[in-house]
Amino acid sequence: MGGVSVNLEEVAYCGLYCGLCASRRRIPRQAATLRETLRKEGYDRGCFDVPGLEKVFSAFWEGLGILADVPCPGCRAGAGFPGCSVRACAQEREVTACPLCPDFPCDRLAMLDHYPLLVADGKRMRQLGLEKWVAEQEARDAAGFAYADVRYE
């Protein structure tokens, strides 16, 4: 890779780029904005004008703080589904990401079929190499793209 290091914290084992995940970027920003709006309106001091809100607000405020301040650390840091067979396979095969495995794409990725760009992006990773692929994903992030914009439910 020419001596330039790639931040693997942003590269999921499956080949998704964490920087394009809404829970890593968009949701923390929006949660912080909502928290600031609520503070300006006095909700952090108990100004509840919605009936019943006082019963749930403490847990809501705590959850909002988590969303704003503790974004997903990524699967390399232990986040995501604990029994993820994709992560286990990549670790067992000692590949940085699934697209770099000779068997990519395989049936294990079916669990991620709600990410329609996964296979195409993986093929792009193979074509460009990890370093250039990451640079491309960072450009997508800078442009405001997130997987949630095209994800199936």
Question: What can be said about this structure in brief?
Answer:
With 153 residues, the chain is an all-alpha fold. It has 5 helices and no strands.
Strand and helix map with partners:
Blueprint lengths: L25 H15 L12 H17 L15 H9 L24 H11 L1 H13 L11
Explained architecture:
The protein is mainly α. The protein has two domains: about 10-25 and about 75-153, no CATH class; about 25-70, no CATH class. The chain has five helices and no strands. The protein has helices spanning about 25-40, 55-70, 85-95, 120-130, 130-140. α1 packs across α2 and α4 crosses α5. About 20% of the residues are buried. The model has no long low-confidence stretch (mean pLDDT about 90).
For this entry, give a set of tags.
single chain, 153 residues, 2 domains, elongated, 42% helix, 5 helices, mainly alpha
Query: How many distinct domains?
Result: 2
Q: What string, H for helix and E for strand, traces the elements in order?
A: HHHHH
Largest sheet: none
Helix content: 40-55%
Q: Which structural category do the helix and sheet elements fall into?
A: mainly alpha
The whole-number mean of residue pLDDT values reads 90
- Annotation field: number of helices: 5
Number of strands: 0
N/C terminus separation: 36 Å
Unreliable spans: none
